[in-house]
């Protein structure tokens, strides 16, 4: 039986209508703000402080360029599929990316929480606290994103059917492979963002743009010789190398040490349990069969993380303490 598709139930508003509405909406808002009785929050026209611009540009420009590089890195493979393979294949690939990228709902908030606290510790000269924060957030990411990867590999086809429709069930192999790409991306993004906390956005920018260039060439070669699976494999490999490069950058350019031991045992655990999940996936035909198997796999995966001490009760307490701020 066909699983219900959430997209089919959401009314679609053409983008052109939204843009047309904005043409009338923005002038209306401007008129309302211009009424004499509307309180003015800006007492004088804004001016540009050229001295501040010159002072902040060496940090701000590379930092924003690095953000753009990450966007470019994440979108290159889709453009390669569109140009070299075709639009129908690009639709399937985009569906795969959408499902696999669900884990960014976990990695992005943790990264945003981590950055300001790390910078505060660095500004205060508290290297021990900064090291503790970096290690704790890395361990937490390996545990949380690893759980998603294990579950996604088992339920790739079910997720594609549920979130989109049955005709996109063919996206399952790409979802399984790209789940690793977003796993590596989530951890590497947090590590590279730590360079900004040390005032080193240029080093982060260089690493990201080199990875984007490699992904561009590699994805093109993969598309020509191995179709979409080649593009997905190259992108995953590039993000894995990016993670290693992020760790090396932390070691070279900062006073901190990358948590290589935790990264190694975490990667090994994710790969091992993903293999078990992949082996079990042919025997899961629907969501009701999936639930007990998924819970069993996640229980085993988390138990193994406790066994190798990637996560510990003390580490969880420290993480909660860091998040709530006391």
Concise account of the structure shown:
The chain is an all-alpha fold.
Description:
The chain is mostly helical and 326 residues long. The radius of gyration is 23 Å and the shape is globular. Helix 5 crosses helix 10. It has helices spanning 15-34, 50-84, 87-100, 104-123, 127-163, 172-197, 201-253, 260-280, 287-307, 313-324. It is built from 10 helices and no strands. 79% of the residues lie in helices and 0% in strands.
Give the biggest beta sheet.
Answer: none
Overall morphology: globular
Secondary-structure element order, as H and E? HHHHHHHHHH
Count of helical regions: 10
Topology:
Blueprint: H1 15-34, H2 50-84, H3 87-100, H4 104-123, H5 127-163, H6 172-197, H7 201-253, H8 260-280, H9 287-307, H10 313-324
Helix pairs in contact: 2-3, 2-7, 3-5, 3-6, 4-5, 4-6, 5-6, 5-8, 5-9, 5-10, 6-7, 8-9
Characteristic key phrases:
single chain, 326 residues, mainly alpha, 10 helices, 0% strand, disordered N terminus
């Amino acid at each position: 039986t066909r699983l219900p598709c959430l997209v089919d139930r959401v009314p679609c508003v053409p983008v052109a209508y939204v843009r047309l509405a904005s043409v009338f909406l923005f002038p209306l808002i401007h008129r309302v703000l211009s009424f004499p009785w509307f309180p003015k929050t800006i007492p004088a026209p804004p001016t540009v402080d050229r001295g501040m611009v010159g002072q902040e540009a060496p940090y701000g420009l590379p930092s924003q360029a690095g953000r753009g590089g990450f966007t470019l890195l994440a979108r290159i493979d889709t453009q390669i599929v569109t140009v070299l393979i075709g639009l129908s294949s690009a639709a399937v690939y985009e569906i795969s990316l959408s499902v696999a990228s669900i884990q960014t709902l976990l990695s992005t908030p943790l990264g945003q929480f981590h950055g300001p606290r790390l910078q505060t510790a660095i500004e205060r000269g508290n290297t021990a606290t900064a090291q503790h924060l970096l290690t704790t957030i890395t361990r937490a990411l390996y545990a949380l994103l690893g759980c998603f990867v294990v579950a996604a590999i088992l339920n790739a086809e079910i997720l594609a059917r549920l979130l989109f429709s049955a005709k996109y069930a063919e996206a399952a192999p790409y979802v399984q492979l790209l789940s690793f790409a977003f796993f590596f991306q989530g951890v590497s993004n947090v590590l590279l963002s730590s360079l900004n906390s040390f005032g080193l956005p240029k080093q982060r920018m260089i690493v990201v743009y080199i990875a984007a260039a490699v992904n561009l060439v590699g994805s093109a070669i993969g598309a020509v010789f191995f179709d979409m699976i080649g593009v997905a494999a190259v992108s995953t490999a590039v993000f894995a190398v990016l993670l290693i490069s992020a760790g090396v950058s932390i070691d070279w350019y900062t006073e901190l040490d990358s948590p290589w031991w935790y990264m190694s045992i975490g990667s090994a655990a994710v790969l091992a349990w993903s293999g078990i999940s992949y082996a079990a996936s042919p025997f899961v035909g629907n969501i009701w069969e999936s639930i007990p198997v998924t819970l069993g796999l996640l229980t085993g995966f988390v138990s193994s993380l406790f066994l190798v001490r990637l996560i510990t009760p003390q580490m969880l307490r420290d993480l909660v303490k860091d998040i709530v701020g006391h």
